[in-house]
């Protein structure tokens, strides 16, 4: 884990080794502009503690994330926007440190484009899945 942290670009940003356009900082959270934005105002909100996936981050390091994303929405004036968090390469995660995107969607060309491949469901199978997940909550 130490070697992953040492090479992690977001950990380097947290430590001040790489500069960023810092929008917010607390003891547990950092928000900054994305340097390869999908639209004007595209920003990232990250926990300062290193973890590759959401399940690797302690709950108390996640409490500020959505309130900060909300402040970014207000500060940018975005009327339509996406809050996005990817886990794993197959789910389009590029940097192996948990990060949340706030991506303004000002028009059809800018911002996040999404495919939503809905699948038909069998209600009996859905009920069984519901019972399985609910029992583990």
From TrEMBL:
Cofactor(s) in the UniProt record: Mg(2+)
InterPro entries in UniProt: HINT (IPR039384), Histidine_triad_CS (IPR019808), Histidine_triad_HIT (IPR001310), HIT-like (IPR011146), HIT-like_sf (IPR036265)
Chain ranges of the HIT domain: 9-112
Reaction catalysis annotation: adenosine 5'-phosphoramidate + H2O = NH4(+) + AMP
Keyword set includes Metal-binding: no
Active-site residues (renumbered): 99 (tele-amp-histidine intermediate)
Membrane-spanning residues: none
This protein's UniProt keywords: Hydrolase, Magnesium, Nucleotide-binding
GO molecular function: hydrolase activity; nucleotide binding
Motif Histidine triad motif: where in chain: 97-101
GO biological process per UniProt: nucleotide metabolic process
PANTHER family, per database record: ADENOSINE 5'-MONOPHOSPHORAMIDASE HNT1, HIT FAMILY PROTEIN 1
Name of the protein: Adenosine 5'-monophosphoramidase HNT1
Gene source species: Canariomyces notabilis
């Amino acid at each position: 884990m130490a070697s992953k942290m040492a090479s992690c670009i977001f950990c380097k940003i947290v430590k001040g080794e790489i500069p960023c356009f810092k929008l917010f900082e607390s003891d547990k959270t950092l928000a900054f502009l994305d340097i390869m934005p999908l639209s004007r105002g595209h920003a990232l909100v990250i926990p300062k503690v290193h973890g590759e996936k959401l399940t690797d981050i302690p709950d108390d390091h996640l409490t500020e994330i959505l309130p900060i994303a909300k402040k970014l929405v207000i500060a940018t004036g975005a009327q339509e926007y996406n809050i996005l968090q990817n886990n794993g390469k197959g789910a389009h995660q590029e940097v192996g440190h948990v990060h949340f995107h706030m991506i303004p969607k000002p028009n059809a060309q800018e911002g996040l484009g999404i495919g939503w491949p809905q699948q038909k469901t069998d209600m009996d199978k859905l009920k069984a899945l519901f019972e399985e997940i609910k029992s583990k909550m």
